[in-house]
Each structure stands twice: as structure tokens, then as C-alpha cells.
Design brief:
The chain has 296 residues and is an alpha+beta fold. The protein has helices at residues 11-15, 59-65, 71-78, 83-91, 102-111, 117-131, 146-150, 154-159, 166-177, 185-188, 191-199, 206-216, 227-235, 246-257, 261-274, 288-294; strands spanning 2-4, 24-25, 31-35, 38-45, 48-52. The protein is built from 16 helices and 5 strands. It starts with a strand and ends with a helix. It binds a DNA duplex (13 and 12 nucleotides) through helix 6, helix 12 and helix 13.
Length: 296
DNA sequence: TTCCAGGTCCGGC
DNA sequence: GCCGGACCTGGA
């Protein structure tokens, strides 16, 4: 499949910025992974996205996953920009927030607590190898469904190297399998209600829930606050302590960036992780408290 | 060897 | 409500 692109698409940044954990770089700029459980490799050449493989996902599935449907441009058009965000958007022109399967995102981010990207990946692959179905064309298995994952007990999960996350994964698999948590139902739910439902599960706090909402459930107003965003809030916006607590941070972000603040978060996050501290807004643009806190 | 990694839970103020 | 410590494990 060949899909002509309207604007820049940076697969390297998009697929390896910590929103998805299973993509692998292969030779010549190709990235290999699964979309909708189908094996595919992707690359961008001369303004065209190439997606191929023997049983590759459809054009529509690829386009939806990468937001080649105008939703990325809608973000660019509608987001409110300040100096730091403008710098991040300019430095990362091809970065996008993927539209992923919420179940896969949920499992990935439950594994993410107190871990690094490499460990998250290795744990996730271990789960897929142990409980997921094989894929046509070989390669890594699909992410196990809730029922498939629920067949492993806590001891099994610990043997796979999940550590203390084992009971969390076990509980989450059972909750989704048994319908105690209906993920797809959370798409239409209001942010507050969806957050409350997710956080009620063991091992899911506000940070993980926000990631599931943003990366998997289309709640672009979810604003995950992790250590990197905490750094941005402190260094760039002079917000520390209570001012950086998730609830207040989200309110601040929505006011500053608008209803797609979560999408903007991914740019701030990736910039801070891969490039460094963001430029600071002019004093006038900061809130009064922040401006006085930032003063010498 | 020691420390840290995209957090969450639990107990004490 | 807020603050601090423990928590599996693998890699630097």
C-alpha cells in the first residue's frame, strides 16, 4: 500500500516516543510491527508512506492508526500555542499521537510503572509470547486478549519477569474479561467518569489512566503527568509541588493549550526527553504566581 | 556494588 | 488531602 502524505510524518519519532512499545526498527528506515493484529512494515519515502507485508492491514487501518485522516491537522489548527509548545511543534514536525487499541495501551502502561522503555517492551513481548496468538507471516505474537491473558496466574506472570506488576496485570485482565471494565464504553464517557473507572482498578493510578485515555481512547484532553512532564512544568512553567499535581496540571494545560492539551503533552514530553529543556514563555505569558516564582 | 527507571499503594501526619 | 517509603527486576 502506498499512501501519499500531505505533510511530514516522522515514523521514528512517532513509533518510538514511548506511546507504543512493540515497534522495531529494521533496515533502510523500515519499522516493523502490528496494526490491528496484522503484521506490517512501514517507511516514508519521498512524501509517500509505504506499508507492506503479506497480510498487511488495510489502507484504512493504517491511515486511522497514524491519523492520516485529518485529525492531526485538526490538532495543529486548533491547539493554542505558547513559546515552549511552538518550539516543540517546530522541532518535531512529523510527530503524531497514534490511535491505538485501548487494551494494548492499558497492558503496556500497567507494565510501565517504575520501569524503563526497554523493560516495558521486554515484559510486553514476554506476555505476547506466552499468551498471545501467532500472527500470519510469523514474527512476534499478537497482544493476548483479556481472556487469553487471564489464563495466566500471578505466578506465571512473575516468572515472565513482571515483578510486582504481576497481580496488577492479572486483575486488569480479569476485570476487562468479565466486563467489570468496559474499555470501549469509555470512549463516549466524560473524562472524569472514564478516569474514575480506570483508577478503580488495582495498579492503575491517574498517570496510567491518562495514558490509556490519551493514547487508546481518543480523549485528547487527558494530560498525563509523569516525571518528564513534571520537569517541564517546573523548569519551563515554574510550577512545582501542588501546582504540578495531576489535577491542577491538567487544568493549567487545558487553559493554556485548549481541549487538545493531551496531544500537545506528547510534544512537550518527547522534546524534553530527546532534546532537552524547553524554552520558557515570556514573563507576560505566565500566570502571576508563576512569573513571580520564576523571577530572580 | 549501587542506583535508577515515563508509578502505585499504603501508612502516618 | 499531602508526604515519604517500599516495591520486582535488569541494566548502566
Amino acid at each position: 500500500v502506498r499512501i501519499p502524505l500531505d505533510g511530514p510524518l516522522d515514523l521514528e519519532a512517532t513509533l518510538h516516543s514511548g506511546q507504543a512499545f512493540r515497534w522495531r526498527r529494521s533496515s533502510d528506515g523500515w519499522h516493523e510491527g502490528l496494526i490491528e493484529g496484522r503484521r506490517v512494515r512501514l517507511r516514508v519515502m519521498g512524501g509517500v508512506l509505504e506499508a507492506d507485508g503479506p497480510a498487511a492491514p488495510s489502507r484504512a487501518q493504517v491511515a486511522a492508526y497514524l491519523r492520516l485522516d485529518g485529525s492531526h491537522e485538526a490538532f495543529l489548527a486548533e491547539v493554542r500555542r505558547d513559546v515552549p509548545l511552538e518550539a516543540a511543534l517546530r522541532a518535531l514536525p512529523g510527530l503524531r499521537v497514534l490511535r491505538q487499541d485501548p487494551w494494548e495501551v492499558l497492558v503496556g502502561f500497567v507494565l510501565s510503572q517504575n520501569a524503563n522503555q526497554q523493560r516495558i517492551r521486554s515484559n510486553l513481548e514476554a506476555l505476547c509470547a506466552a499468551a498471545g496468538r501467532p500472527v500470519a507471516g510469523g514474527g512476534p505474537n499478537r497482544v493476548p486478549t483479556p481472556s487469553e491473558l487471564a489464563r495466566l496466574d500471578e505466578a506465571d506472570l512473575r516468572r515472565l519477569g513482571l515483578g510486582y506488576r504481576a497481580p496488577y496485570v492479572h486483575a486488569v485482565a480479569h476485570a476487562v474479561r468479565d466486563g467489570a471494565l468496559a474499555l470501549d464504553g469509555l470512549r463516549q464517557a466524560a473524562y472524569d467518569e472514564a478516569l474514575e473507572r480506570l483508577v478503580s482498578l488495582p495498579g492503575i493510578g491517574v498517570k496510567v489512566a491518562d495514558c490509556v485515555l490519551l493514547y487508546g481512547l481518543g480523549h485528547l484532553d487527558a494530560f498525563p503527568v509523569d516525571v518528564w512532564i513534571r520537569r517541564v512544568l517546573a523548569e519551563t512553567y515554574g510550577r512545582t509541588g501542588r501546582q504540578a499535581a495531576p489535577l491542577r496540571a491538567r487544568a493549567f494545560a487545558l487553559k493554556r493549550f485548549g481541549p487538545m492539551a493531551g496531544y500537545a503533552q506528547h510534544f512537550l514530553f518527547h522534546y524534553r526527553r530527546t532534546i532537552g529543556p524547553l524554552p520558557r514563555p515570556g514573563r507576560k505569558a505566565l500566570g502571576q504566581a508563576a512569573a513571580s516564582a520564576a523571577a530572580p
